[in-house]
Amino acid sequence: LANVELTDRVDAYRAEDIVTLDIRLAKKFEIGAFDLSLSLEAFNLLGAGGVLRRELDLGVGRGGAVDEELAPRSVRLGIRVGWR
């Protein structure tokens, strides 16, 4: 059972605001003729979950279903090597 607001305007219903926090720390080292960059990135630190998009066509079997959600909290480590 799904609660559906019937309206002829697509923008009649707005989802709540989603607040996220992303951060990136990076450090560059010069070793001889090489450049080494280390980075640490964290996404969605607040762990906010939320629906970003739903199926608006209620005439299909998946009407009102979630099409896109906010990705969960994640961390990425990066290493970049360059030469001069």
Walk me through the topology.
Layout: E1 23-31, E2 34-43, E3 51-54, E4 66-69, E5 74-83
Antiparallel strand pairs: 1-2, 2-5, 3-4
Written overview of the protein:
The chain is mainly beta and 84 residues long. It has no helices and five strands. The strands form two sheets. The protein has a three-stranded antiparallel β-sheet, with no helix packed on it. The mean pLDDT is 85.
Q: What percent of the residues sit in helical stretches (DSSP H or I)?
A: under 10%
- Sheet of most strands: 3 strands, antiparallel
Order of helices and strands: EEEEE
Low-confidence stretches: none
Into which percentage range does the β-strand content fall?
Answer: 35-45%
Number of strands: 5
Rg from alpha-carbon coordinates: 21 Å
Going by helix content, strand content and strand pairing, the class is mainly beta
Task: Give the distance, in angstroms, between the N- and C-terminal Cα atoms.
Answer: 63 Å
Shape assignment: elongated
- Mean of pLDDT: 85
Number of helices: 0
Please state how the strands of the largest beta sheet are arranged side by side. Answer: 1-2-5
Features:
84 residues; mainly beta; 3-stranded antiparallel sheet; two-stranded antiparallel ribbon; 0% helix; elongated
Outline:
The protein is an all-beta fold. The chain is built from no helices and five strands.
